[in-house]
What we know:
By secondary structure, this protein is an alpha/beta fold. The protein is about 40% helix and about 20% strand. It has ten helices and 13 strands. Strands 1, 2, 3, 4, 5, 6, 7, 10, 11 and 12 form a ten-stranded mixed beta sheet that branches. Helix 8 (about 250-270) runs antiparallel to helix 10 (about 325-345). The longest helix has 27 residues, at about 275-300. The two termini are about 40 Å apart.
Amino acid sequence: xxxxxxxxxxxxxxxxxxxxxxxxxxxxxxxxxxxxxxxxxxxxxxxxxxxxxxxxxxxxxxxxxxxxxxxxxxxxxxxxxxxxxxxxxxxxxxxxxxxxxxxxxxxxxxxxxxxxxxxxxxxxxxxxxxxxxxxxxxxxxxxxxxxxxxxxxxxxxxxxxxxxxxxxxxxxxxxxxxxxxxxxxxxxxxxxxxxxxxxxxxxxxxxxxxxxxxxxxxxxxxxxxxxxxxxxxxxxxxxxxxxxxxxxxxxxxxxxxxxxxxxxxxxxxxxxxxxxxxxxxxxxxxxxxxxxxxxxxxxxxxxxxxxxxxxxxxxxxxxxxxxxxxxxxxxxxxxxxxxxxxxxxxxxxxxx
Length: 352
């Protein structure tokens, strides 16, 4: 039996498709909770009228999806919780496939659904990812045609939080999603906390969902999408927050030169797009959050049983289609990937 938690903020136009597909699963969830971040588009009223079997909660403020997920899991009645964003449409059989994958491994804490592009379900959006030592995610099968996508056959390094089935006990043990991140990099942080505790994370290719337009002003779709300034702000702040809260100090110190190189490249990227004010705002907000990151760190490290060298990778980084794909930018991208891979090879054995 499963408790389903749908996270929503001003997503009324998504909810008909999302909830209809969720309730049509065989077997359906034992309960469905809509956790609404105080929408002003009539979302709560729509769901109450159209889906009376769904429990509707108003968090009272838009504190981000991390807060909404924690709010929902705290109120769920079942050990297995399906958590999904409002712009996710499950395909038939997805919930059963997620449950089968979770039950197959007693150390599995979380299983992500295979995400297909909402505008073209013949293309994989992502199949989970891996934790790069720079704090970013390396996404698997990123914008890969479905017929060419290599399905994961075992645990993955990290999950994307758009649609996943999780053991409630493991979720609470890890402390849930860190609400100071608000959005972006919360997948990295939560997957990191689960895996350093010795839990495994999976992506089930049999559990498919379509991922629609994403978060306005933040998500990007396709090669022509503009890079949002808010994304620059959150990237500038949240990557370092994850490193400070999850990485062992020895690993942090050993990788700091590479972290600074990556940070400088990203700053130049922000400058080129006219986002330097947003980049600096991210750094200023990070300084404010350092005490909170250090408190989160104590809780995370208290449960650690796996070393960073066994959790982190240095695979080529994931970029949005069209970014650094030609000319000098592409050459720089290749050079940086090789530099970071070589650097990690040198220091990995010494990392805690």
